[in-house]
Amino acid sequence: MKGREDGKLRKRMRKNKLAWILMTAVLCLLLYSIVVMRSDNRVSVIVGGTDGAFIQSDGLTYADPNAVTETPEPTVDIWPDIDITQTQYTMVRDGSPLSVAWAPDCEKVSGTNNQLFDVNALPYLEKMLEDCRAAGFTIYVTAAYRSYSYQNNLFNSKASQIAAGMGLTGKDSYLDPKYQEAAEEAKKIVMFPGTSEHQLGLAVDLMDKNYSYLVYENMDQEMFAWLDAHCAEYGFIKRYPTRKLLLTGWDEPWHYRYVGKEAATFIMEHGLCYEEFYAHYDPSFTYG
Questions:
Q1: What is this structure's pTM?
Q2: CA-angle at 57, arms to 39 and 274, nearest 5°
Q3: Is 252 a catalytic residue?
Q4: In the chain, is it the N or the C terminus that has fewer CB atoms within a 10 Å radius of its CB?
Q5: Topology (CATH level 3) of domain 49-146+198-288
Q6: Residue pLDDT, tens place only, 217-258
Q7: Which residue pairs, CB below 8 angstroms and at least 24 apart, start in 162-165?
Q8: In angstroms, rounded to a whole number, what is the distance separating the alpha carbons of residues 50 and 248?
Q9: Rounded to the nearest 5°, which phi and psi values hold at 3?
Q10: Which stretch of DSSP H or E encloses residue 183?
C-alpha cells in the first residue's frame, strides 16, 4: 500500500515539475517579446529635433531610453487639486492637436527679437530669465509662440528639403507618391502642424549664447542644471527630458513649458514627464 502511495506521489511530483518548466518557458518567452517590442519602439520614436534642429549622431549615444520608463504613480492623496481642463494644462502632441484657429493672447518677451509668450505666464518667464542671468548664465530665448501657419511652413519646408534629397523637385513634386515618405521623415525632425506646444504660447526653447545652438555635446550643462533645479519655482517644467523619450516621443532638453507652480513643483519633484501627470487627471488619455 505504501509503495503504491509513493508511486502516486512521484507521479504528481513529475507533473508539477513539468508544469513548472512549462510556466518558466512561457515567462521567458513573454520577457523576450517585451524586450523585442521595446527595442522596436526605440527605432520608431522621434529622436532629436525641434523645428529644423537635428542631432549629430543617428544613435542615442548620449542617452539610454530604456534606463527609465514610467515613474510609479505617487500616493493618490498627494496629487495637486487642479482642473486639468484649464488652458495652462492643455495637452498638445500627436493624437491631441490644436486647431488651426488656436491663437493665445501673447506679448513680446523683454530683450528678445519679437519672441512672443502668453500674456498671463509672461511675468514668470521673464523672472526666470532674470534670475538665471543673475546666476551667471547668458540665457536667451530661441523660440516661443508660433502660429499654426508658421509651424505649417516649417514642416512643409523640411518635407520639401527631404524630398529634394530623394530626387523629387519641381512645383508638383508633392503629388509624387514618394513625397509621403519625405513627409514621414520630416515628422521625425519637425513637429506636425497643430502638435507643437509653441502654438499654445506656453512653451519656450532656451539656450546659452556662449554655447553651440542645439548641439548636445556643446550645450551649457550647468545652465540646464540650474533650470531643472529652479524652473518649477516659476511654474515651468522640462517638457521633453531624455530619460522619458519613450513616453513623450521627443528628446529636447532645451524645451520648457509653463503649467503653473503647483503642477510644476509636483512634476519636477516626482520625476514625472507631463504625459504621466496628465494621464492621472484624464483617464481617457493614451500615449498613441
A1: 0.74
A2: 60
A3: yes
A4: N
A5: Muramoyl-pentapeptide Carboxypeptidase; domain 2 (3.30.1380)
A6: 778 999 999 999 999 999 999 999 999 999 999 999 999 999
A7: 162/186
A8: 13
A9: -60, -35
A10: helix 179-186
